[in-house]
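pasting for the record
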Amino acid sequence: MFFVYVLRSLNYDRIYIGHTHNLENRIIEHNSGRTKSTKPYKPWELVYSENYESRDEAVRREKYLKTGSGRELIKSFF
């Protein structure tokens, strides 16, 4: 199983969209500073996630969420 997830920085006006096969571990990596792109904006909280059977489906959804329309959808989560 694969996950598409949206994180929100607790200290900055930032969101991060990604996909993974181990959601719990991935959030720990983001908050421990092991991910270069998110390290300056930690700590992060999970605000949304979706499950997919295949990596291809998850990647397609992640790409959509990173578009203008997808970001508008994400704003509705808050």
